[in-house]
Specification:
Nucleotidyltransferase, domain 5, alpha+beta, 5 domains, globular, single chain, 19 helices, GIY-YIG endonuclease, 626 residues, seven-stranded mixed β-sheet
Amino acid sequence: MFDIKEELKKLPDRPGVYLMHDAADHILYVGKAVNLKNRVRQYFQNGGNKSPKILRMVSQIAWFEFIVTDSETEALALECNLIKEHRPKYNTMLTDDKGYPFIRVTVEEAFPRILLARRVQKDKSKYYGPYTDVGAVKDSIRLVRKLYRIRTCRRRLPEETGKERPCLNYHIHQCDAPCQGYISQEKYRESIDKAQEFLKGNFGPIQKHLKEKMQEAAEALDFETAASYRELLFSVQRTEQQQKVTDSGGENRDIVALAMEEADAIVQVFFIREGRLIGREHFHVQVAEGDPASQVLSDFVKQFYSGTPFFPREIFVPEELPDGPLIEQWLTAKSGRRVTVVTPKRGEKHRLVELAAQNAALVLRQDREKVKREEARTLGAVRQLEQLTGLSGLHRMEAFDISNISGFESVGSMVVYENGRPKRNDYRKFKIRWVQGANDYASLEEVLKRRYSHGLEEARALREQGMDQVYGSFSQFPDLILMDGGRGQVNIAERVLGELGLSIPVCGMVKDDNHRTRGLYYQNRELPLDRHSEAFQLITRIQDEAHRFAITYHRSLRGKAQVHSILDDIPGVGPVRRKALMREFKTIDAMRAASVEDIEALPEMNRGVAEMVYAFFHEGEIPSET
């Protein structure tokens, strides 16, 4: 029995993180402290000016635990990680999970490329962004490649110079073919340097250059070339108009502001890069009654920047944050350079913060109904499901499905929903190993045994390392398991869980004769679902998603098996050459359409083998890919 009074006496005078649990072992709150003894005791002392939110939370605390750190900065970093992992009920939560694209220039290569990147890697490349519109980023990359004739191939240069013919971009004058040695490394670097100036927003030199080229072509009566320069000039001008100058400092800044109304809150962020407003984004935040705006902003900043790879030099906020200096230390340590949190009081900087706040208020008014609808279809649907089944505390649900065609390449899928939303990073697919032929029940049993046995082993390994509160990719178990079927599938799941010593509720998603969701099978009876309810819509989405994920995996295995089986029959083609053919041509039809020269151009091929591959596809009876 956990005696809170006795455990409070054992708290150390050290910085660290504390976790509050309820009777069902759910984490209610995660907090940090410069002194764990003083901070945790405050929750259980009488008197004081506690908010309604804190009073409700304290009434539900059954036990607590703590993790000691060497400094308050380490505690802040750990707090951010634990909040993101467990999403406690009483922490202010950033509900959006958005990622932003970057433009990557591979300056570490002899002949650099310009690419779209989803995250900043710890490499020697140069990154520009983040940007909020992935479509605009792709347009910019295409424009810059065309303007400066930047290569798009993945060849290793100069090692592979001259090994293959130049691609189409060379012939349409959009690349100078460094792969053939037609341009020197120094000359190519000049183009890359100009491209980087363009990405920084310096459009003047390229506009001047395009105007001169357009004029020269027009004077030479080469109107087609002049028109192409004119189109490029228009593209540059459109790009320039999309990026409005917001200040003259040329700094990288994020402007963060908040609008709150009851339990609804919107945080608006303006992204300023090199003195230009490149985009803005708003975020929905879960807040509780009594949460002050400064604390909500502080929690947002910690959660947002714990998951972003880019850190601006300055973050503007409308009011002082409770732990502003600590956040500055933490961000500076993460970014490797000085990051400051600023509260502007007057002038243009203050105007930018006010503008962000006005936008946040506008979005809050416009999106309140939208937010409520989204909450109804996710959390609201989960609450309806709890009422229907009599369960409580449903946070994570896992659903399983099996796919095969006449027993060929049977596969299983596991999809995960948390708080009514899909958590795609936790999806898992299983290739059936132990079952021969079309036996869905046996295949389901294999998938469940593998999934939960692996989870138990992973949890055991983490406990042995003293990491009881850390979850791996399999050790986090669901609050509810959903099976694609009725009594038979549910019985299999319950038997497997019993053998493994696990107690997890299992429901079957029952379909009617037209293969449409009809109800839930739970505890030996079918629970009818109102077709107009949010719970019905959620179950339908989960069932369809599990089926889609299984079918997609099965289709990919069928395609690979078809290509593998055909290539295995070609004399002289072993695993290395087979892999090279698949990597280059992807499909059977593409291989059939390739010439002997196209096949011979692969580094793994020679003339004799290329002729055998060509003869195989043009003399044999090869079915067309479907």
